[in-house]
Write a structure and sequence with these properties.
- It is built from 6 helices and no strands.
- It is mainly alpha-helical and 135 residues long.
Length: 135
Amino acid sequence: MPMHGSECMPKFDGKASSLLKFLNQYEVLADDGGLQGQDHIKQLLCYLPSDERELWSGLTEAKASDFDVFVAEVKVMYPGCEGDRCYALSDLQVIVRKYVSMPMPSVEGLSAYYCAFHKVMQPLLASNRIGTAER
């Protein structure tokens, strides 16, 4: 297992959108390291920023040895971390509000807006949660 602070350790930024990636990266390392039960959970906690570590350590399942049940309890705290509900119309509105007053003198600025907008818009369209009026 990579040492805490090493370049190749899994990192979590506290956002629901990055939780599954973090957990998947950790699972690969834990499987390679042969971790099981409570050791599996304890090592995961070591890779978290201090706020998340404190929060996750306080969960009932953090003291148990069933990693899958622990992860399920963690996912409850991060709505939208899985499935097609990772974005809402309000996320799209935040992006528009951010960029509406921002001058875009370069193609890079326009590209940043376009990419941010489409990143949120595409899953909303795919799940029929926005219509043509919101595009």
